Amino acid sequence: MTISEMTNMIGNGMMDKLFLQIYRKNDREKLRQRVRYLSAAENFSKKFPLNNEINVFSAPAQVEIDENYTEKHYGKVLSAAVTSDLLAICAINRENIIRLYFEENGLTEIDLSDITAGTGTFSALAGGIISEFEKKQHKICGFDAYITSDIPNRYGFSILASFEVLLAKIISHYNQVDLDIFEIAKICQCAERKYYSKNYGLINQLTCLTGGITAFNLKETENPLIEKIGKILQTYDENMIEVEGHTDNVPISSSQYRDNNVLSMYRALNVADFLREVT
């Protein structure tokens, strides 16, 4: 669709049903997302004025419901994707360059004929994800993307997996790459380890890819069992569900969280709010 078609659809309320499905189910949130999407489309036009045919992509944030280190101990993990997300307005640019304008980091340009990923930055991570796709014999075309974040910098949220999954979705769409969620998650994980120096597991990426509340059995860490439990919780109308927050045993003290108990409380409150929305 074109930018003008998108703005007309939003202005006429044609995307309201989608907003209510993805985000909180109330009129205030619907109106907020209208403004947010219109602003993103306008900013895309300013940054990339030569592009008119666009696509819209989204990747949710995720929050851990179980303890942080359960995954490393090959146990069972409960995780949830939330309604805060990364939003991207994108267009193919017919060049051999990927341009990512991320509100948090500014413009990143990646020359597909000479990818030098580096390490430790979002630019390096993006180049690493592209490199991992190319290693699997996928030819990547150039595109422009304006990315805006609705993910709060608190309550244990991390933007990292959301960014990885968002970029992987865009690459997969524009290059007709047919990969299952495990393959995409592994590409993101590999790039994260090589180019961002983070040795995390697959749960963050898989949660962003599956959405909702998901239980993972990590008996086989490379191919964990996945079970969606959001619909199961909806059957407990007459019961009380207790949500308890956890942290690891390393003491913390920051401007956001006075101690581990405060962090645990905020995690529990965040998950409880999410459960109210989806049940």
What's the short version?
The chain is of the alpha+beta class. It has helices spanning 3-11, 16-22, 27-47, 122-135, 160-174, 181-195, 203-210, 230-233, 260-278, and strands spanning 55-64, 76-92, 97-102, 106-111, 143-149, 213-217, 225-228.
Strands, helices and their partners?
Blueprint: H1 3-11, H2 16-22, H3 27-47, E1 55-64, E2 76-92, E3 97-102, E4 106-111, H4 122-135, E5 143-149, H5 160-174, H6 181-195, H7 203-210, E6 213-217, E7 225-228, H8 230-233, H9 260-278
Parallel strand pairs: 3-5
Antiparallel strand pairs: 1-2, 2-5, 2-6, 3-4, 6-7
Features of this protein?
single chain, 9 helices, seven-stranded mixed β-sheet, 279 residues, 7 strands, alpha+beta
Question: Can you tell me about this structure?
Answer:
The protein is an alpha+beta fold. Helices cover 40% and strands 20% of the residues. A hairpin with a 7-residue loop joins strand 6 (213-217) and strand 7 (225-228). It is globular.
What is the 3D shape? globular
Q: Kindly provide the radius of gyration, computed on alpha-carbon positions and rounded to a whole number of angstroms.
A: 19 Å
Number of helices: 9
Detail the poorly predicted runs.
none
Chain-averaged pLDDT: 84
CA-to-CA gap between the ends?
33 Å
Percentage of residues in DSSP E strands: 15-25%
Give the number of DSSP strands: 7
Structural class call reads: alpha+beta
Strand/helix succession: HHHEEEEHEHHHEEHH
Please estimate the helix content. Answer: 40-55%
